[in-house]
Design goal:
- The chain is mainly alpha-helical and 199 residues long.
- The protein contains 5 helices and no strands.
- It has one domain.
Length: 199
């Protein structure tokens, strides 16, 4: 959504755009909300499907005797931390979801819904930051255990650590950049618009 265009219309002298302009703005806001909901569902469904697949592989490996939980518990702990993070995202998303109200001010409610979506996204980044150090310990233990039980050579171990390190650094950088350069400015704009509407 083009916030500058939206703010220009919002702060127009009379703040009473014609029916056509008002309908276009409402359609733009509603399209933004629908797009965000689709993205949120996809971003939750993809890691959930991947985690379900990894969990099935681990269960099969244990059942076939290819994995000894007593000697390779690090990978199980990594899996548990990932499931814990997904559960935290689901719980926070449920608690912070926008409960739409049937009111005579649909534009105000739409802005409030956008702000709630922004709040959920910021909470997910905060969960990521909190879980990152928790994840690092079982990851290091798990990689070390693969080397100890002979499932990985020393070279493989260093390669795994390099790949994990690059992936986690890139993910942390991406999430941090989005938080400060996209989510926080959007939050300030939406809070400003909501405050103006409620004056």
């Amino acid at each position: 959504m083009d916030f500058d265009q939206f703010q220009t219309a919002w702060r127009s002298p009379a703040n009473t755009p014609g029916d056509r302009v008002r309908a276009a703005l409402m359609e733009d806001v509603m399209n933004t909300l629908k797009t965000r909901r689709r993205h949120e569902i996809a971003l939750f469904a993809m890691p959930t499907a991947a985690m379900a697949l990894f969990t099935a592989i681990v269960v099969q490996a244990i059942a076939n005797g290819r994995m000894e939980p007593g000697r390779e518990w690090g990978s199980l702990a990594m899996l548990g931390v990932c499931w814990l993070m997904l559960a935290a995202v689901l719980l926070v998303g449920f608690r912070l979801r926008h409960r739409g109200r049937d009111s005579d001010t649909p534009m105000r409610d739409s802005i409030a819904a956008l702000l709630a979506s922004n709040r959920r996204a910021r909470a997910n980044v905060a969960i990521f930051w909190m879980m990152l150090p928790v994840f690092l310990v079982p990851m290091l233990v798990g990689v070390g255990q693969l080397w100890e039980v002979g499932k990985a050579t020393e070279r493989n171990t260093w390669q795994m650590l390099l790949v994990f390190g690059v992936a986690l650094t890139a993910s942390a950088g991406w999430n941090t950049a989005r938080y400060f350069w996209v989510m926080k400015p959007e939050q300030r704009k939406l809070e400003g618009l909501l405050a103006e509407y409620e004056e």
